[in-house]
Design a protein that fits this description.
8-stranded antiparallel sheet; ATP-guanido_PTrfase; Creatine Kinase, Chain A, domain 2; two-stranded antiparallel sheet; kinase; about 45% helix; alpha+beta; EC 2.7.14.1
Length: about 350
């Protein structure tokens, strides 16, 4: 497995699989923040300390496999171009923060892209693991096993009272962020999502965009995750998040039913106009493409569109991002040039499917 493979395939292998409630929940993610006990955390560590961590993890884990997660590829951030970094962010294989770091930062990625271990981001180690659909408990159990595997060779910074110690105080305790990526077009169309967000925040959860903290929710895709890591077990956090997500699923299903009953023709028109835009546009901006893809995804889920699969939309969601477009073109593009190429790639992909 090489960097070229991660760059050229728009859709990760695990994303081709269906999971529970995958018409609404695209993915479940567990992220664990960990630090070495005997080395200063990245916010105060010097380059020599961080380079020691990077070299140790590369030496101990590069090309190893753990259960279904085969052949971890070690990727140095300093060796990547700005476009390559952007592509890995767009595929959620590294975080935007890691992409900004140079020098000692790196990532280890399994060949199925389901697991990535980020090195010297905000913490020494950040383990993230994805599953399709709503599978938080399964993802947590696998993350625990992967964490134990790493801990066999790493002495973690841990306090008996406070739990795992992290650079950011909000991560102290479990060091865990659990999140789900949800497609909520009906709640967005009916404006219900705006009323629900404050209530979700009051429950110790946060609603963000597709790339997490600081990102905008485009294409009706929302990331729901926990804010509290101290004073609760990992299982408690998962239970709270699962409960809220299941309520959102129920609300979204009811909103979709009401839209079909009360505005069926208008909804079908919106869906087919979006499909037409994707099939025939010669210029399309990223936000418009995301909204059209959202509407078409809704059409597939409602059975209105029958000759397309969600996998095509998952692929196009990544393929039409700025980094991927420039990687495809093998050069830096202006915003206008990206809008033209985005429209071309969407047309060609849909024609290939037909």
């Amino acid at each position: 497995m090489t960097l070229e493979h991660f760059m050229n395939e728009a859709i990760s292998p695990w994303m081709r699989e269906n999971g529970p409630d995958s018409d609404i929940v695209l993915s479940s993610r567990i992220r664990l923040a960990r630090n070495f006990a005997d080395i200063p955390f990245p916010i105060i560590a010097n380059q020599h300390d961080l380079e020691k961590i990077r070299e140790f993890l590369q030496q101990e884990f590069e090309h190893l496999s753990f259960q279904d997660y085969k052949n971890f590829e070690f990727i140095s951030i300093r060796d990547l171009s700005s476009i390559e970094k952007r592509v890995l962010v767009e595929k959620h294989l590294i975080s935007p923060l890691l992409a900004q770091n140079d020098g000692t930062s790196a990532s280890m990625i399994s060949n199925n892209e389901q697991v990535s271990v980020m090195i010297n981001e905000e913490d020494h180690i950040r383990i993230q693991l994805y599953f399709p659909g709503l599978q938080l408990t399964k993802a947590l159990n696998k993350a625990f096993e992967l964490d134990d595997w790493l801990e066999e060779k790493v002495n973690y910074a841990f306090d008996e009272t406070r739990g795992f110690l992290t650079s950011c105080p909000t991560n102290v305790g479990t060091g865990m962020r659990a999140s789900v990526m949800m497609h909520l077009p009906a709640l967005a169309m009916t404006k219900q999502i705006n009323r629900m967000m404050p209530a979700i925040n009051q429950l110790g959860l946060v609603v963000r965009g597709i790339y997490g903290e600081g990102s905008e929710a485009v294409g009706n895709l929302f990331q729901i995750s926990n804010q509290i890591t101290l004073g609760k077990t990992e299982e408690d956090i998962i239970e709270d998040l699962q409960s809220v997500v299941q309520q959102l699923i129920e609300h979204e299903r009811r909103a979709r039913t009401r839209l079909m009953e009360q505005s069926g023709t208008e909804l079908e028109d919106r869906i087919y106009r979006s499909l037409g835009s994707l099939k025939y546009s010669r210029i399309i901006e990223s936000k418009e493409a995301a909204m059209c893809l959202s509407n078409v995804r809704l059409g597939i889920d409602l059975g209105i569109i029958k000759d397309l699969s969600r996998n095509i939309l998952n692929e196009l969601t990544v393929l039409t991002q700025p980094g991927f477009l420039q990687h495809y073109a093998k050069k830096t593009l202006t915003a206008s040039e990206r809008d033209v190429l985005r429209a071309t790639l969407i047309r060609e992909r849909l024609q290939l499917e037909e």
